Fold this sequence. Notes:
By secondary structure, this protein is of the alpha+beta class. The protein has helices at residues 29-40, 87-96, 129-132, and strands spanning 4-5, 11-24, 44-46, 55-58, 66-71, 77-84, 100-105, 108-112, 118-123, 134-137. It has a single domain (16-127), classed as 2,3-Dihydroxybiphenyl 1,2-Dioxygenase, domain 1 (Roll), CATH 3.10.180.
Amino acid sequence: MPGEMGQEGKSMHKSKLGGLVIDCETDDLDREAEFWSKALGHEIIRRYEPGDETYRCLATAEPEPRILRQQVSHQSRVHIDIETDDVEKEVARLQRLGAREVERVRNWCVLEAPSDHRFCVVEHQQRGFDERANVWGQD
């Protein structure tokens, strides 16, 4: 839970690898999703959010991370999502490690690692999050 208190009264939060996102610069996301579905052997199960035509999701088994295809306007690439129970605390923790904020989108944040790799911090979405997530204390 956001704001959970741990030992010595420190504010705690959790995070873990949440997903692999295949960014596709394409006009036909369904075709791209079909390719990745067949390539990885995972059925296409849904769009990421109802009414959002820029995502397709593949079925994965617990505890595998989600695999999404996202339609983008930038060059195709792959990025990771870190899921957390507190986006603000996780962004701050990663910034202390050297990441820089690129932009805020809806309820998530795009960051860039010191290596110039972009990744997202998102609200947790998978079952079993509490059991598998790392627990971080407020520094």
